[in-house]
Amino acid sequence: MDMAAQWLWHAGEALLKAALNPFSFLAWLLLALSCRRRTELERKLFAVRLHGSLGEWLRAAGIGIAGALVLSLAAAALGLNLTPDAVWWTWAAALVLLAFRVRFAGLPAAAACIGALQLVVRPLRDGLPEQAGPAADSLLSIDLASLWMLAALALLVQAVLAGLTVGRGAMPLVVPGKRGKPIGAYQLQGLWLMPAVLAVPADGGQATGAGPLAAAGGGAPWWQAWLLARPDAGAGSADAAGLAAWWPWPAFFDGPWDGGIALLAFPVLAGFAELTVSDLPERRAKRLALRHAAWALVFAAAAVLSQLWPVLLPAAAAAVLLVPEAWQLMADRAERRQSPQFVQRGRGLKVLDVLPGGPAAEMGIRRGETVLRANGQAVDSPDGLHAALRANPAFCRLEVSDANGESRFVQRPLYSGEHHLLGLMPCPGDRVPAVVRWRPLTLWQLLRIRVEKLALPAGEGGTAADAGDGANSPETAGSSVPAGDADVPPVRADVAGLPGEAGRAGVPGIAGFSGAAGAGPAVGSTADAAESGGAATSMARGGPGGSGAAAETAAARAAERDAASRRPGPRAASGRKT
After folding, report:
1. Domains in the chain: how many in total?
2. Of 144, 436, 470, residue with least CA distance to 312
3. Contacts of 111 (CB under 8 A, 6+ apart)
4. Alpha carbon of 317 to those of 96, 110, 135, 273, 411: distances in Å?
5. 3-class SS at 507?
6. Does 369 lie in the same domain as 477?
7. Residue 318 and residue 353 in one domain
8. Is residue 554 part of a domain?
9. Which residue of 27, 90, 212, 221 has the fewest CB atoms within a 10 Å radius of its CB?
10. Residue that finishes a domain, picked among 336, 367, 400
């Protein structure tokens, strides 16, 4: 009982050392930046917040601690021979790799780089300067097979977490397609800190006590005591050798196990980031989990081969360094060749995501499904869905088609204050405010979140404000009639009932011409046009206002010709020049 109580105490001590050391603080900060980036991108792209930054951070921290427990138990079963030197060198490599890609900061990439460094430094050790000798000895003292096996275990845990959690937590994005058209996408991203506690040889931590960071004056250096938890010596307490004798299985990896067992705080950073435009995130997450499991087998095979036959160490180091990256490049290239699936195709309104807790989520609508009809009306755009919902503001009945093409009906009463689209986030069409260009995630992208704002087209249903200032520019107002329509006589402003389409340019000073919504107020009305019709006709016939040619300004003439060329109306006899 005393042994179990003491070792539980030291396990808690090691866990705190793993969770609260500076390496872990850097990982917690990196995780917070990742959660903040997600929230800001959701706001900028969709003007909503699907998940809060604090909630996402707490969720990722809890998942990481659960993964650390599994990783610690699996490592204890294998008996890994690791020292504080391995912790320092792993995190040094991770911080360097973080400057290139966030996913490189994980344990597998760092362990692969340490293997490559050992291959380079080992033949050069005797020729190194005296000042570099302790650092080289510290690097070469790392049991590479044990480190690679720990990376394999971390990849297995990462594969399980990816399959269970990443698909449901995928972030929706709007990215530019191959031809520049906005398309929907999902970012599958996982980033976890697993503060593992490893059972290691008690004497292994002092094997490199003369390392570059060792404290002067002898004894255990501070950087080892900072990461190791040892049982207290004395009567009635469990010592390390006693626990080693009690251990129910032999260690697979060589090490000074006769001296007993200590607990090593080893914070492990695991994560990845991937984009999909061709499949639902739940399906993609399953394939991603299988890929990470295969990578784990590569690391495990390299660890076993280098332990049994050290001559194969160079080949194993090359395998763990190159195989995962080559596999990742092939997966990215295959994804780029796929056709995008999350775009509006004209039949129904395809759903990119659903607000948690919203009406659509309560009705069971999921990602990738298509809303075909709402309250009996066919819908193919967000505006169409909104208009159909307004037809019956107290109740809604939707026909929804799932990813397999099977239709079902869902219904629900509506309440005041709910989302105007029931909490649905449609796939992008032609009118989106911004897109984000997908690039491999870097530290700079976590610090500076940028999207590319798009100018909305002023096509059918567009506005002059959407198109920019050019809709009211003199060049637009003074556009001339095309050469082929030069013989079409102009339609006069005094012809009542002229369609508003003719006034899309928003020409001032002509009664009865109303621009599109947002193009500025229309000057005059139909009644004003009827009242001023006599005066205009008199001026056109050479009345008191002067001759017909002098009465019409150049801007009015151009606008009338432009209106006639777009949608010619009935030609009234009084509208012709005499």
Report:
1. 3
2. 144
3. 90, 147, 148, 150, 151, 299, 320
4. 19, 12, 21, 24, 58
5. coil
6. no
7. no
8. yes
9. 212
10. 336
